[in-house]
Amino acid sequence: MLLPKARGELSEALFEALRSETGEVGSLHLRPTDQDDAHIALWAMYELHYAGFEDVDDELEWDPDVLGLRRLLERDFEAGLRSRHTATTLDEPFAEGLFAYVADHDGPSLAAYVQRTADREQVLELLRHRSIYHLKESDPVAWTVPRLPTAPKAALIELQYDEFGGGDPNRLHAHLFALGLEASGLRADPYAYIDDVPVEILELNNAMSLFGLHRRLRAASLGHLAAFEATSSLPSRRMAQGLARLELPQEMIAYYEEHVEADAVHEQLAVRTICGALVADEPHLVDDVVFGAFTCLDLEDRYAQRMLGEWEAA
Amino acid sequence: MTEHGFEHPDVIICPGGPLLLRGDHVVEDADGVAHETRRPVSAVCRCGKSADQPWCDGTHKVLPARDRP
User: Fold this and answer.
1) How far apart are CA A296 and CA A255, in angstroms?
2) Which of A101, A147, A206, A284 is the most buried (most CB within 10 A)?
């Protein structure tokens, strides 16, 4: 995999520096042109911690200048996410309070549109966008594991063991999505479609990496996971029905059907045994759990609004 | 945490939601058909409305509060 296309002055200069043998990022004092520019630069710098790029020296993963630039962009990003969030006191008990918080959040539903209205091209576009995350499904929250105390750590691994196929690579969720992409005539190599995705998809992915890579944000990482899982089962059923209506391949339908059942379990684990155990240990982290949950719901809303706006205008 | 260590039950009843089963089990549904669990933790439907019996599919969340288990 090669670096993505630049989207503005900062990413242009950054990618040029990352590709050069010396990797001199130190002289970059540019401000991003816009959010697209900022988020593709941040996404690429995060990617150095996952699979990396063929045209970037692996040494640059821990280059202080790259980390410094990443930190500048992260500060702006996190400040923006926090400015959209209103602190809320959850009802007691915690698990019911968090489930209710997620259920009370009202946003547009891409899954409902796919179930009843979307055409084949629109669904394939959605799958290309979703591939950026689903091909590394559950990887970002794996960064959080060593930052947790005993009970939530064991609980998170209980959930992730299922995400990663229970030890069977054939059942690893990211692999199931890759099979679905191939059967649908789409590319299944990671980030094949990175140049096509809107900024909202970059933000969704960058938020998970931000939360995962910072111990300070471990509770937001788990709150994000809880909201993600708690808004997956029923929408996955709708997605599966929409894909069946459009006669997409069984492999892609199977991916969503698997998530109907898996995420009905995972939402209970994420809310009760993972977040519940974390806030029992560290009660002051409840606000960050809610911040992470809100961010998941909010960024999904923004992506759904963009896509529904484009599709309904077409 | 208790004096004996952490609580780690085999079966968890989720208020308003499913019953969680840890480990490998065979669950017989209402029609007498046996289903093997196939993940580390499984969620068994308690509201009776799941379309994926005997497993939970999240349907309890769209039921009125009085109809939830």
Assistant:
1) 21
2) A206
